Amino acid sequence: MIKVSVMRNYFLVAALLMSVHVFAQTSIDFSCDKATKIAKANEKVSSFTSTFTQTKKMSFMDAPAVSEGTCSYVREGNKLCMKYTKPAGELMLINGQSITISRGGKARTMSAKNNKANALANMLLSCTKGEFASLGASDLTYNETKTAFVYTMKVDIEVGKSNISKLELAYSKQDMTMVSLSMIEPDGSYTLYELSGKQLNAKIDDSVFVAPKKK
Questions:
Q1: What is the dihedral of CA 64, 66, 71, 75, to 10 degrees?
Q2: Domains in the chain and their CATH numbers?
Q3: Which of 65-74, 85-94, 105-114 has the lowest mean pLDDT?
Q4: Is the pLDDT at 41 greater than 90, yes or no?
Q5: pLDDT for res 65
Q6: pTM of the model
Q7: Is the pLDDT at 26 greater than 80, yes or no?
Q8: Which long-range contacts (CB under 8 A, 24 or more apart) does 7-10 make?
Q9: Per residue in 54-66, pLDDT tens?
Q10: Cβ atoms of residues 150 and 170 within 8 Å
Q11: How far is the C-alpha of 41 from the C-alpha of 23, rounded, in Å?
């Protein structure tokens, strides 16, 4: 989606359905019943494909930038591919212990030895799996909208080894999969991703998760 900032390249995915009416809000423990059910439900999701819309707003920008693309996820092997159609040609790929960013015809692959890249990959995959409790975040609050369970939590920047200080996630009441994720920085900058048209347990060709060759 956005063509700004290195963090955009690391695919700071984002969420929170701001336009939906919130019915209730309570401070809860990560071991709460609904959080546990979300993680359990996502254990049955072996894969999915969807379209996504990314909204990126940096502190220096006058207005958010919006991008679009397709998302492919396979639980086994921790595989996630975000392929941009607008702007076309950009890619963010997680395949096990490596992360590949492709932009402007140039591809860069980083291993788990890169602490920041590894932390962001872990954060993204944990949220996708509904296992956000594993992130060790604090000050968790829980809300319900007409269509989603919404969680907001603080993230320790030092522990997370990233610039993200707050996460906002929404999971569908229908199938309990993630429909949006927002990663927010201390200065208010954020990246918001919203997933739609999701097809669960779809057959996805292995070639989707092969990193493009460096040019």
A1: 0
A2: 6-209 (2.50.20.10)
A3: 105-114
A4: yes
A5: 93
A6: 0.81
A7: no
A8: 7/163, 7/185, 7/189, 7/191, 8/56, 8/191, 9/92, 9/101, 9/103, 10/92, 10/99, 10/101, 10/116, 10/117, 10/120
A9: 999 998 998 999 9
A10: yes
A11: 23
Mean pLDDT value across the chain: 82
Give the tokens for residue 58: 């940096």
> Whole-angstrom Cα distance, residue 140 to residue 137?
7
pLDDT of residue 176: 94
Task: Say yes or no to pLDDT of 122 above 50.
Answer: yes
Alpha-carbon distance of 30 to 215, in angstroms, equals 45
Task: Concatenate the DSSP letters of all residues of the chain into one string.
Answer: -----HHHHTT------TTSPP-EEEE--TT-HHHHHHHHHHHT--EEEEEEEEEEE-TT-SS-EEEEEEEEEETTTTEEEEEEEETEEEEEEEETTEEEEEETTEEEEEETTSHHHHHHHHHHHHHHTT-GGGG--EEEEEEE-SSEEEEEEE--HHHHTSS--EEEEEEETTT--EEEEEEE-TTS-EEEEEEEEEEET----GGGGSPPPP-
Mean pLDDT of 40-68: 95
For the stretch 101-121, pLDDT in tens is 888 878 888 886 776 777 788
CB under 8 Å to 81, separation ≥6 — which residues?
71, 72, 73, 91, 92, 93, 94, 208, 209
Cis peptide bond prior to 87, omega within 30° of 0: yes
